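Handout, page 2. Input:
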Amino acid sequence: MVTSHPDPLNAPVERPDALAVTIYRWGRDHALLLDSIFAGVLLVLLGAASAFIADLPGLVVATLTIAPLAVRRRYPIAVLVWTLVMSIVQLVVVPIPLPGNIAQAVVIYTVAANVASFGVRSATLVAALVGSLLAGFRWSTPPDYGRHALAAAAVLAVLAALVWVIGNLVRGREENLRQLAGAVVQLEQGRRRLELFVAQRERVSAAREIHDIVAHSLTVVIVQADGAAYAAANADRWHRTQAREVLDVIGATARSALAEVRTVVDVLRDVDTRDVDTVSGASHDGQATGAELGRLVDSVRAAGVPVEFDSHPATFDALPFRLRFVVLRAVQESLTNVLKHAGSPVNAQVAIECTADDLCLRIVDDGPGRHVDEPATGTGAGHGLAGMRERVHELGGQFRAEHRPVRGFEVTVVIPLNTTVGERSAA
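Output:
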């Protein structure tokens, strides 16, 4: 089996050794042509030298040994078998070493550097060592025939082993480059998957923010518009002042929602903004404040739902921004659900309490209706409560939404104040 080596050097940057890299790649891509030229040069030089030393048998043996080097990298195992056969033939018909025997060292190197099978490479080394021993005894002459034969065999064996080791080192280097190239490809694929994952999280987060903004604002607008339409059609007297108040609430709610949606869209348009927390907290530090929370509660009151708000603005503003943002969205979504699902009559209560370790948020209503976007267990697939749960869990907190025993609905949020997410987002 011959190993194939993908290109690990296709770097798009300028390299100081660009010429060497170009030559290496050309030689690898044109292996057959380069090996043919190499075999031709050896045949001319070493074939003539072998003929000069051993006449016609030397020329024939050298030619048949050197010529297959033209396909040594394409068919290394076949060339190895052929070289073994020619080595046996040479030991039989030519009693002396030939310059063409250099081809045998080239074949040993080729197999060690290009064949993946360790068994084949090991068999090549064994054959080279046995051949060195046989050649030492075949080519040795008296006196001291045995000592000269062993010395020659030892020299040939050391040279063969050295060539084999060099070939294995080259094969190991090529294998390392191949694995490095594969690792680079996997790293690039991982980077692209991460970018896709971040982009998907940004879209999901933006959709979640826009859902909360639009759902709350449209609910307030619809309640105000329906109330105004009913009053205009059925009330004995409907003063301009009342109409102006309703329209003011509708206009302010719509303008606030438009500004918040624009903020989210602006964040998504910023190509340098890749942090999902930035999208989730698309508001600037000037938002998600106690004053904004108060305006949110006032808008619900203006829609006709009495809301008892138990929190000091200074305490809320002292919290990390990410924590304030999650609390603001939780209150917004919960009061929106009160407007949409609680029915009438209804009263709501919002309480924010900070202990030494946790922030506790509780939103309760006593309406007769059912919050249809989420079962009583708080584990359904409604977008509003699901979005709240995701935000709370990102901060390591606990979220609970359930129906009260008699009537009404309750949302409870507990978030640790030492959450690293909150601290990081506030930085």
